[in-house]
Design brief:
Length: 441
């Protein structure tokens, strides 16, 4: 007895064939998803559990063979069935090499389709061996995050422990490390995922408006308050309120936040009526709150209320083994978006990405991949990378040079790379030609 309907993804640029396949499969009790292009199929695969892929081969832009190779690499256990109107021996061999489990030639009957689908699903189900869920397998792709480093697994382990309760969480980490992704993972992977998730950047709200935006206000509370209005706390009722850049909250707002955390109640600006709230607070900061406490810029009692659970999100330089996985994720995302195809990166270019120290963390890596995809003609190579990455200094392994000597070595390296072209060298160094001439003299 089937526990649920299998999800089948059908990919074909012929709308009539797509509709026919969907009608046939629905009539034999399968749940279907349709895609008229590989690009659309990839977005469905990203967000949906698919039990069988049915795809045409000859399609514009990205063809079915590329889709087969991609799914064979990223979804190896998912059966793949090919339907095509252009059968050939060579074509059949290429299809099976690309990972397809069966091959169906157009036109075909409903019964032939039913048998092929059942065979593909049963064949793979028979071969599938249940595997124990190791921490690394589980955490390799978590919500919208990805990684397999020890530092990454520590973060996902804490997420697993807090996702189903409403303990207050403080997420710490440098800018660009993905603190909001961690907050979203806590919310959307737990039992409160159907409730609201409200993200607020405290640093983006003017200090004199923070209290009104967070807690709401009543008509006439201040100039411009022409109606009663709920704040972010009321909007997040029953769910999660994510307060990013919590260190920028004013001391007056910090006092109200402390009461909201202690008493589970708030008061709108201009009102005396107390309102009960049932929300989980997740706060985030890239600042050192302990230093701000010393400087009297942050309340110590609020700090300890916020740190019931603390998550330190590691900078990218401390999880460099995750860089290839992140690069692959961004190549898949932006390759399809910008170039309508799946792109690869050369080993040499990837090595440069792994060597770089990434002061801007994952956000900087993502931006660099986007730029490289736009500049590339196919496989991303060193020439497509931003200049900042291509011309990074390899510091000596033994001893240290004075700053003046290090600058001299770097200028020489850039000139060697540009084959003596001073204009190009000045562009890379981001100085004018006169300054470069002075340094050479």
């Amino acid at each position: 007895m089937r526990l649920r309907k299998e999800n089948i993804l059908i990919v074909d640029d012929d709308i009539d064939i797509l509709e026919l396949l969907q009608r046939h499969l629905k009539s034999i009790d399968y749940h279907t998803y349709k895609a008229v292009s590989v690009k659309e199929a990839l977005f469905i695969l990203k967000d949906t559990q698919i039990d069988l892929l049915i795809t045409d081969i000859q399609m514009p832009e990205i063809d079915g063979l590329q889709l087969l190779k991609f799914t064979n690499e990223h979804y190896p256990e998912m059966p793949k069935l090919v339907v095509t109107g252009f059968p050939s021996v060579d074509g059949a061999l290429e299809v099976f090499k690309s990972g397809a489990t069966d091959y169906l030639t157009k036109p075909f009957t409903k019964e032939e389709l039913k048998k092929a689908v059942q065979k593909a699903i049963e064949q793979v189900a028979g071969q599938r061996v249940p595997k124990p869920k190791s921490a690394s397998t589980k955490a390799n792709s978590y919500s919208d995050m990805i990684g397999e480093s020890e530092a990454f697994l520590k973060v996902t382990d804490i997420i697993e422990r807090v996702k189903d309760n409403k303990a207050t969480v403080l997420i710490k980490g440098e800018s660009g490390t993905g603190k909001e992704l961690v907050a979203r993972a806590i919310h959307y992977s737990g039992k409160f995922s159907r409730a609201p998730f409200i993200a607020v950047n405290c640093g983006a709200i003017p200090e004199n408006l923070q209290e009104a935006e967070l807690f709401g206000y009543i008509k006439g509370a201040f100039t411009g308050a022409n109606e009663n209005r709920n704040g972010f706390f009321q909007s997040a009722q029953g769910g999660t309120l994510f307060l990013d850049e919590i260190g920028t909250a004013s001391l007056a707002v910090q006092t109200k936040l402390l009461r909201a955390l202690q008493e589970k109640e708030i008061t709108k600006v201009g009102s005396r009526k107390v309102e009960k709230v049932d929300i989980r607070i997740i706060a985030a900061t890239n600042a050192n709150l302990l230093e701000e406490i010393k400087n009297k810029d942050f309340r110590e009692d609020l700090y300890y209320r916020l740190t019931v659970v603390e998550i330190d999100v590691p900078p990218l330089r401390e999880r460099k083994s995750d860089i290839p996985l992140l690069v692959e994720k961004f190549l898949r995302k932006y390759g399809v978006e910008y170039k309508d195809r799946l792109l690869r990166i050369s080993p040499e270019a990837l090595q440069i990405l792994e060597r770089y120290h990434w002061p801007g963390n994952i956000r900087e890596l993502e931006n660099s991949i986007q730029r490289s995809i736009i500049m590339s003609d196919g496989i991303i190579d060193i020439k497509d990378l931003p200049d900042l990455l291509k011309y990074q200094i390899d510091f000596p392994d033994t001893g240290f040079l004075p700053l003046r000597e290090m600058e001299k070595e770097y200028v020489k390296k850039v000139l060697n790379h540009t084959q003596g072209n001073k204009t190009k060298a000045a562009e890379i160094l981001q100085i004018d030609r006169k300054t470069l001439r002075d340094k050479l003299d």
